[in-house]
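Pasting two entries for a bug report.
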Amino acid sequence: MNEEAELLVEIREPLAFLTINRPQRRNALSVSVLISLARTLKELAQEGKVRCAVLRGAGDKAFSAGMDLTALPEGLPEELQKEIQSKGPLQYGLEAIEDSPFPVIAMIRGYCVGAGCETSMACDLRVGAEGCRMGMPPARLGIVYPPEGLHRFIRNLGYAVTKKVFLTAELFEAREAYAMGMLDYLVPEEELESFTQDLARRIASNAPLSVSGHKRVLKMLTPLRDISPEEREEINSIMGRALASEDAREGIAAFREKRDPVFKGK
């Protein structure tokens, strides 16, 4: 398997280690990373030799600090371009994690925020180092998160904790994130890699058909409920109104300028 510049792939059968390799951008998710991630997971599933994968960020600053809004790479097959454009690149990449027949463990150190935090929610388990920080900042940016993303948090954290995460827009320290269920395991920084690898090997030692079967059936039991055309229209209106607001411009400007935003409700 070829190694992608922005996604490093290391196979130690029966495990795979996938590293988002953009440390200079705190491993922000580019379209290329998401396409490479989806392609790699599908290839590994077809080969049938991997029983568990670990997803991590390069360096020690971040698992992923969010989404890097870049254009679609050139030279993609037309069918793939249409699929990515219809779903959005983030949804395309995260569905590949959820549809993978083998479990994917998020190994988290440093910042895990925004789209990076949602990526961790798409994984089957999350292991965090004691110094990591997790959160969702849309309310501080003046935008409304899409229902598919909100559903990932509800499915993992429940309705009440999801409200806390999105309404406060706080950056949670590791111990609070663990108490809230955002992390399944919390370990000392120096033990993160060894603990995660041991966990992955324990999972890989179980019966593959049972593991993949449970993953698939559990997903089928917790689907995003059907949204009526009227509800979808209202959701799109809510999201569009927020995105076009003065508050959204202020939130993004404040983020870039590293200052507190001043919102007016307009």
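Entry 2 (this is the one that rendered wrong in the viewer):
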Amino acid sequence: MRSKLTTDPFKSTSKYYSQYRIGYPREVINIFFKEANIKSYEKLLDIGCGTGKLTFALSDKFKEVIGADISREMLEEAERQRKTLDLQNISWLNCSAEKINPNLGEFNLITCGEAFHWMNRDKVARLNYRLLNKEGVFAIFGSNTGSVWSLSEPWHKPVLDVIQFWLGDKRKNSYWLRKMHIKHEDVLRKCRFKNIKKGIYQFNYTWTIESIIGNLYSTSFCNIELLGDNLKNFEKDLVRALKNFNYKGEYKELVQVYYIIARK
């Protein structure tokens, strides 16, 4: 049962990330914009943008949109989608969130979806504070989507059992968990942000066997790089476990999407 860690925890995940991550429902985006009360919609910066799930969801409000990510592979997938959607206001920056050049100018909104926990949060928050205009907003988005480690749904248990059989009991690439005793909100307060508030939006989602497998392959803890030569056997065991749990192949989950809004 050989597995391996990688210096890039999301290597070879971009196509799965793009296709099988749920993304952000229009309802939560509308609620966010109402609560954020952004004064102008000139420029948006989405850091750790990945394949652009959040970038695309927010882009129609802004004249200029920049999505930044350290992974060229993720940005290539994002650009493929941009061309398909024929969106002219979006460009991409292959750069870590910690090294974004302040010469990019000031932004009305800076966002980060599903990625802030991977970053040097203090450094990124301080830099974002500088990059925002005087009425700017920094927003962090996240969700529990695909978090089988939480065991929040009954079908998570057989999935997690198969993952742990092939990849070990401990969650791979989970070094970020060590710093999460400090909440995102506390990091933002320390870095001078104010009027910080959090909202949660819930909705029901039905997974299939295909989408569960695809979503797992988009993660840092159960992707094709980690599984290596065990990939086919892993899939066979996972399909069997899921069918034994529900032969119809439908697996419901209550998904929670959160957003944190902070002002300069």
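Dev reply: Rendering is fixed now. As a check, the viewer should reflect this: The first strand starts at residue 43 and ends at 47.
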